[in-house]
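Quick illustration, no need to memorize.
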Amino acid sequence: MGLPGLLRDAVEVSVSVTLSNVAGLLNALLISIYSWLLLGSPEALALLPILASIRGGLGLSLASRISTMLYLGTAEPVFLRLVKAEASRFLAPFMASSVLAAATVKLAAPWLGLPALVLVSVGSGIATSLLILALSSLVSVLSFRAGLDPDNVSAPVVTSIVDVLTMASVLAFAALAPLAGGPNGLTVSLLLVYVSLSYFLGTVMYSKGYRRGLLEILPSLIVVSIVEAYAGRLLVVYGGYLDSLGLLSVLPPLLFICGSISTSAAARLSTTYHLYGLESLWFEAARRAASSMISLPLPVLVTALVTALLSLGRVEPVLHMIVIFSSAMVLTIIGILMSAAVTLLSARVGADPDNVAVPAIMSLVDLTGIAVLAWFAFTFMGVAG
């Protein structure tokens, strides 16, 4: 594919990310309104990156897998059939990820309360699991039927769905977190039921022959959880500082934009690997880097303008926009480089990049994004008064 194909990718990604970023901006508004709740419940704040990343990564892995199957002709774009055959396979790791999230965040930030971590993580998982997986499947099917490239469309749309559902459920359970001040009956019962259900689902899927998929997804979930746990710790440490500069609300749309563009690249690189082999990987990575730079300005401009309005009176608008644009450009470049590296590495070791690359990139962008935004904030705005 030449210049027309590159421009088409850029337009599809840019429009999809810009439209889907309504979710990121909604989350920015929610953080502006409920920052007191999140800062007062550090367990919920620490869990936001890991829950959004793991659940988004699983949803995107499912969407990427379905996209590859549709392109290879091994599946028909029939929603209910694909949900039954594919989405059910991701339910067990999705359920297990909530327990894993609470445990890894506790290890990364030992001062946080385990009962509150369990309540927020497990409760929000119960509330969102089936909905996220079903909608992820639906996005791939509808975009393929519409003649669009699911690899360009799925990442921003699925991420937006996951971000909104995660934010809403975490805020809801953060309000309930004071009820989990100790290992009370509600928390313990919820945890036992959830662990039992995860184990049962995993056993069923393993017995049905989905061994390779589970064995590839679970290690990546562990790695993603560790990375995101430290992203959550970083957010707890710098959350108050970013909020004082009016930048805490920038994180959801910023990470959404850069994460969506990077995971779109990872999904396309995975499809390229399946269709053409490793010899085409680096050329496609260069194409995606170019199209990503073209697709970046529009959604970032919208985000910068909206979040500047949310921060009026708290920060200089010009500095605010400089920090956002600088952070987005650097983070996107890092995300594309990581997408190529992780896809190549997973292919080299014989793992399916659909199961490994997408969730890994999502988590790495989150961790890097918090650090990049904090660095640019300190560089251009200095220490809050």
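The mean pLDDT is 77.
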